[in-house]
Amino acid sequence: MSFDLYVLDLDPTPAAADVHTLLEQDGGELTSSLRALVAELEERFPAPTEEADPGPWASWPLAQAAAGGRANAFHLTWDTAETTTETLIEAAARHGLTIFDPQSDLLVPPSAARVGPGADAGQHRSSTRRRWWQRS
Q: For residues 31-62, b (16+ Cβ closer than 10 Å) or e, as one string?
């Protein structure tokens, strides 16, 4: 079982209920922004090998198009979900992309992730509350 997140290249970002319907569409060629994000993540977390740590991914390859290429599914291992989600939020924001958590129907638009020089990656969430991807 994996912790799944989708990165969306949709403008404007639809309501969460509409995203579920969009994700039912077959894959396609990823948009240029999604391709750039996947390439960045593949460079940061190379493909798993028998002798190397598999990294945070529950499945490979990372390019897993949905919604006609306007979304990409990322399947994370549960034990790496917290740290990898922070990385994914930051990377998606740099590319102007939205994160969607289908488990909780939460959308994190690029404007919610404060990234850049001097920005704290967790700044858009209260440090005293449980982060949305942590499950009890």
A: bebbbebbebbeeebeeeeeeeeebbbbeeeb
